[in-house]
Amino acid sequence: MNSRRDRGTEAAVEIVMGPHAALETLRAGKRTARRLFLAREEGGGVIEEILMLARARHVPIEFRPRPELDRQVRGATHQGVLLEVGPFPYADAEVLVAEMQGGAEPGFLLVLDGVQDPQNLGAIVRSADAAGVQACVLPRDRAAGVSPAVVRASAGATEHLPIARVANLATFLETAKSHGLWVVGTDAAEGRDLFATDLTGPIALVIGGEERGMRALTKSRCDLTVRIPARGRVASLNASAAAAVCLFEVSRQRSQRAQSSTVPEFRS
User: Is residue 4's pLDDT more than 80?
Assistant: First the structure.
């Protein structure tokens, strides 16, 4: 079982599964860790670091037989590590974009329009964190939220990247624009060439869902759309692969711009 109600309280309890997800959850300290369960035979460097952090945070630790952990999460893959935590603390979307406006670097916001598969969401968040995204925004309805499966798929990146949920994505994109972000949508079939588009300014990059891409209303709020030029016979990349390409292209351009601005002038 991946989430339940704690006895005597109304607060939701979730179970983060796997050593890397548990380690990053403890490192980030974004939510309260309540209990750590370890299979009796587990050991190694990652486990030792998990134990060290758990003890430093006074998290109760219980060693149990692996079959008992299997039953606790109904056979889900856990690699001998389960961490009971409180509910995921979503950030305030408007606060996130307001903070970007005065930041030292151009704002880099990721907006996901209807990604429903937890594995895809986790993979996208992991790529976003690695590419330097400052925050991620999800719609509240008809989209995956941050669940234990997403935390595991992200290898714990969800615990470091600020993530917000909004009731109306189209309205939020107008708010993002008012804070100086250029809304850039992605489309498999049309738009400017991703690699020929300047993405070094403050942007909100919008990635659509697995089946239909961006919704029409979302697309109407974009300042421009970009596409990944493809040469193969398969129609398009899946959502997580397309997101990774786009995110790292933004990261590449910004790194290149930063390097070119710091190259010293050599005069004869």
Answer: no
